[in-house]
Amino acid sequence: MTPRQRCFACLAEEPPRLFEAALWIAAEHDAELQPAAWLTALDAVRQQVFVALPEQPPQELAQPLLRRLAELDFHEDDDVPLRPQTALLHRVLQRRRGQPLSLALLALELARQLGIPLQGVNFPGHFLLRVPGADHLLDPCGGRRLYPRDCRELLLRHLGPRAGLSAEHLLACDARQMLQRLSRNLRQLHLQAEDSYAALKDAERVLELGPPSVTDHLARAELYRRLDCPQAERYDLECALLLTEDPAQRLLLSQRLGQISPSPALH
């Protein structure tokens, strides 16, 4: 099986083996990566977390878990520009630095193994966590509690002054949605690193993981344009044209399609 096939096999389990699936995503970009070795490394982290947790009911241990990870030097990566290693889980375990989603995936796996209830929240711009039934969210980067006012401020910081907080922003998400977001992050990071072939792997996985969106098809079309694959670019532009309901965007897509030669490319 290929790394991607193994990733999807992990997702098909009940419950999904989310952390291992994310390691197989990393294996697509690192042929020498052995996920089993990093699962063993995670066991050592779990033991370091477990021995420091207070004697409290499981539903009260999510924040102590996140604080303990911070004590163990797991923090948000603040490098500028960010590099793909902030979203590749074996590098996050190795460096103890990562994006909020990467740190959340680590915390979710530890919480699962320790019997601590915890869910992912696909919050725009900064992935968050929640304990089911709690009146607050948790920042995976240190465990700070976030109430609605804090969430509004976080949203404004990432999306600008016109952004409005909605109930949809605070919903728990499933394993497939988290891996799709991870793949989008990697697509962008590899693009910033000018590695179009790596970004294309991530762009393909994004579309395999979830319902197709205009933005995701346009992102892959742009990669095909960079790689001089006009017919593959045409396919994604046509898909985006079918999906969009924006008249201005439909016009622009039609114009772009008219500029692409209809003859087959030899790739």
From TrEMBL:
Signal peptide: none
InterPro entries in alphabetical order: SirB1_N
Top-level taxon of origin: Bacteria
Pfam families: Transglut_core2 (PF13369)
Protein SirB1 N-terminal domain mapped to chain residues: 37-183
Family: Belongs to the UPF0162 family.
Name this polypeptide is given: Tetratricopeptide repeat protein
Organism: Zestomonas insulae
